[in-house]
Design goal:
By secondary structure, this protein is an alpha+beta fold. It contains ten helices and 14 strands. Helix 4 (about 80-95) links the parallel strand 1 and strand 2 (about 95-100).
Length: about 375
């Protein structure tokens, strides 16, 4: 076997790899990562190479897991209600993540939602192209995209996404794709109701009135993203989603049974194993800000896989922000949580300012709230 020198390797890369051209060709196809897989690629394009060793810092302690919390009978049984509030407080302080079961959303609805998102991404490419969006398409109610900020990001993710803003101003039914129109309307109603219940439990976990976070409009905006992670021929070279935190108050995630989601806990990556019928809940950056670091928004990521496709549905709860009009609400640490022993860590900040920073920095793995600390 011929061993090439470093200069030979660098020379071949320099002569063959034109990042800008590769990005432009990828977006010109308007078919995302699914289009690459359909074309029969055996090696992933260079823009997807992450340079990350995904085997580093993998947790070996099998006894530690993201908590699973049973919401059964919490409205009728005071002792169960109190125990659930305690478990949620502990989960939000220690993990920033937990799973909920017996949450009131039928498994059949959850399965149909996963099926609808999968059908959207697997329909004919010419149909998908009609929805394709770029980072400039801020006014679009429905956005189908893949790596829309590639000129800014270090590498591309092995993932396609369709996103719909479902509250407070949902799209007209005719604006939605027919393959998931009925189910996303139904699922968003059920998820919004569950979100309001969890915000009540979170308020109580903070020692506040159950309606406190809802009155802060934490549950007013709902963005649903349907992610599709196609099988990857070289999963060790790229990521489905890189290390990041969520720029919202709370996320409710519906994932299929493939797995791949990992949470960073005590500097180790822990798998979040799929539990059929369960939903994953995690603290967002905005909730960490207003709770003055009482609850933590933690890093998480999604690995690529030979298997699949993996499908997940992320529901992000946030106060609405209009990027066109520039209108947004201002948030700061909740006054009732502050004292001489617990002074504010963050300054009052508008959603617009936080979002602008988030989009400017991209998913670079850096702490999202650092610029807003006092």
């Amino acid at each position: 076997m011929e061993v090439k020198s470093t200069n030979q390797i660098e020379g071949s890369i320099d002569s063959n790899y034109d990042r800008k051209t590769e990005i432009e060709a990828f977006h010109a196809s308007k078919t995302g990562v699914k289009g690459l897989v359909d074309s029969g690629v055996k090696k992933i394009p260079t823009i997807f190479h992450s340079g990350i060793n995904i085997t580093e810092n993998i947790a070996s302690d099998s006894k530690l897991n993201v908590p699973v919390i049973d919401l059964r009978d919490i409205h009728n049984n005071p002792s169960r209600h109190k125990a659930v509030v305690t478990k949620i407080r502990s989960a939000c302080q220690e993990w920033g993540f937990f799973q909920v079961i017996n949450h009131g959303i039928l498994i059949s609805i959850m399965d149909e939602m996963i099926h609808g998102i999968r059908k959207f991404h697997e329909q004919d490419a010419d149909v998908r192209k009609q929805f394709y969006s770029t980072s400039k398409d801020l006014k679009k109610r429905i956005q189908y995209s893949s790596n829309s900020k590639l000129h800014q990001d270090n590498f591309a993710n092995w993932r396609d996404t369709v996103a719909c803003s479902m509250a407070p101003n949902p799209p007209k039914p005719e604006e939605l794709s027919t393959v998931f129109r009925d189910i996303i309307i139904e699922y968003s109603k059920r998820t919004m109701a569950l979100g309001c219940t969890i915000f009540e439990l979170l308020s109580e976990a903070l020692g506040l009135n159950p309606s406190y976070l809802k009155e802060l409009k934490c549950a007013e905006g709902l963005l649903i993203q349907g992610h599709y992670y196609p099988p990857c021929p070289e999963p060790e070279l790229t990521m489905g989603t890189p290390k990041h935190t969520d720029i919202c108050f709370m996320t409710i995630l519906l994932q299929d049974q493939l797995g791949g989601l990992q949470v960073l806990h005590e500097n180790q990556w822990f798998n979040v194993p799929p539990v059929h019928g369960a939903l994953v809940v995690n603290v967002g950056d905005l909730l960490q800000l207003i709770t003055n670091d009482n609850f933590v928004s933690v890093y998480h990521r999604v690995l690529s896989s030979h298997g699949g496709p993996r499908v997940s549905v992320a529901s992000f709860f946030a106060s609405p922000h209009d990027p066109v009009k520039g209108t947004s609400k201002v948030y700061g640490p909740i006054k009732e949580l502050l004292s001489e022993e617990n002074p504010p860590i963050y300054r009052d900040t508008s959603i617009g300012e936080i979002m602008a920073h988030h989009f400017a920095k991209g998913p670079d793995g850096n702490y999202a709230l650092q610029p807003f600390r006092l």
